[in-house]
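At your convenience, could you comment on the folded chain following this short note?
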Amino acid sequence: MSHSPKKDCCRKDNAMKSGFFRRVSDGRTLQRYRCKTCNKTFSQATSDPAYYQKKRQFNHKCMMMLGSAMSQRRVALVLGLHPITVARKLVFTAGQSKKKLRESLADCSFVKAIQFDELQTIEHTKCKPLSVALAVAEDSRKIVGFRVSQMPATGHLAAISRKKYGYRKDERLEGMYSLFEELSEKLNSKIIIRSDECSYYKSVVNSCFPDSKHEQFKGQKSAISGQGELKKIKRDPLFTINHTFAMLRANINRLVRKTWCTTKKVARLVDHLWLYMWVHNSRLTAPV
């Protein structure tokens, strides 16, 4: 059995070949090495992020299914896995997606314009709404960043929410500032930014992108098509962000309107968004 190297000396250039072994999970034959300094053994797979996983062959399938409107239980049923295994695959693949995306989006200076807005969803119940702030490159439709923030219930649910769950802090502004501070490090300072006429958007943009051109457009009535995200107008100036929101609702099961697959933990919604963001940027949009 291979042992995870604990010293810097356990490298290929400081080791000799020490046989092979067949990995049970996917049947691959892997080279084993023995360190010349400490005499410990390691293999090609020792530094793999999926090290010790017994069902690594399902990682990619789970990721693509979870990013294609399938629930965790349905993925488990189709692949013949335990639901807990799929839940763990969600967390693992989300972490790998986050790492890859941060590397690929480290420098987005080529992006000429972005559009941003907020999508509303829920945490367990409609009395506990959440806001997903999203920024999208206008030309390529690549998602360049997002933040999930809690918000208080509104309308007729406000009093019910306060009575049942107590006061709920509105963290949308804080989340929006956090998102734009991150974007300011990788986007051109003179970028064109487009959004709707939300009252606090202007202050956020002026604070983080003082040299940018911020264009705001009046919100329009939603169409029945596109999960209620597309608008009933001939030419939507915010089509990119609205179309992306429609894709999120169509491809992330917990965001579908009138669904029974709700988010129970905010952290899992964040994981699911990282996973979908990788699928969206690498598979559903054209390469830059």
Remarks:
- The chain has a mean pLDDT of 92.
- Residues 1-54 form one domain.
